Amino acid sequence: VQLQAYGGGLVQAGGSLRLSCSASGHIYTYNMGWFRQYPGKDREFVSSIDWSGTSTYYRDSVKGRFTISRDNTEKTVYLQMRGLKPEDTAVYYCAASRAGRGLTTIEQYDYWGRGTLVTVSS
Questions:
Q1: Contacts for 59 with CB less than 8 Å, ≥ 6 apart
Q2: Band (28; pLDDT cuts 50, 70, 90)
Q3: Nearest one of 45, 16, 14, 15 to 32, comparing CA atoms
């Protein structure tokens, strides 16, 4: 499956953005995740959602601010980001995994999309 993340942009601190991840094929059997990467740093887990959409997971720093969701019919996964902070500035990637739910490491994901840049100004 091919993935494409989009929806990034420039936003002021406290603002909101919604990222979308569109898939070329069905995703209803995949657990989906969002990661982000700072310049010169390793990619880090942000959030994931199981295939059914009933189980979601977040890194501590985004809990209460970010919401992951999915629409399997539309083959799309979303990351609604609110209360954005300058430290959320990064390139965001979506990924798909055929393994179990709650996956937080890069190695556990099988497919990756090209990232989308989110910049939060202070």
A1: 44, 45, 46, 47, 104
A2: confident
A3: 45
